[in-house]
Amino acid sequence: MDLMQEAILMGFSGAAVMDTKELVFVPEYRTFCEENLCGCYNLNPACPPASGTVEEMKQRALSYEKTLVLQTTQEDLHDPVEYKKEKLLHNKMTEELAEKMRAEGKTDILIMSAGPYKKNSCMSAYCVDAQKMADAAGMLCWTDDGNIRYFSQILFHE
User: Model pTM greater than 0.85?
Assistant: First the structure.
């Protein structure tokens, strides 16, 4: 299966495979979790502190050689309900693609979701620098074009 092509066919606006060693981890990002900006800190087992320390999560991610970076884009409507709905759709598509990968034989995978989702920790909990990840994957992240971009990753072995 061509992972990038499958992702686009499923509705992602962008997809790229990159080496996990290209991911940049910023331990200071853990403060976003500790400040409970998403409301899940110490409540969701996929979130800190239950998910592990920054170093434990980084090592977990780096135990995989490759990551499939997935992106969806929506116009920023400043509507929190629509924002959550689109993020949920992004995470459901990520989970669906991960299931297709498992069916193709990639049974040992790790999902980093867009915000905590089910048992999956988000990229913020892993302290991944989304802008540098997007740059390495050839995607836009933070811009002033009026769009919101959601990112997730499916880490896997070659």
Answer: yes
Tokens, residue 35: 């400040």
Please write the tens of the pLDDT for every residue from 113-146. Answer: 999 999 999 999 999 999 999 999 999 898 888 8
Strand (E) or helix (H) holding 67: strand 66-75
CB-based contact 116:122 (threshold 8 Å): yes
Widest CA span in the chain: 40
Q: Are 10 and 96 in contact (CB under 8 A)?
A: yes
User: 3-state class of 75 per DSSP?
Assistant: strand
CA distance 121 to 44: 9
Gap between the Cα atoms of 136 and 78, Å rounded: 28
- Return left, alpha or beta for 100; rule: phi > 0 is left, psi -120 to 50 is alpha, else beta: alpha
In 3D space, the residue among 145, 111, 143 whose CA is nearest the CA of residue 128 turns out to be: 111
Q: Which amino acid is at 114?
A: A
Selection from 28, 43, 45 nearest residue 124 by Cα:
28
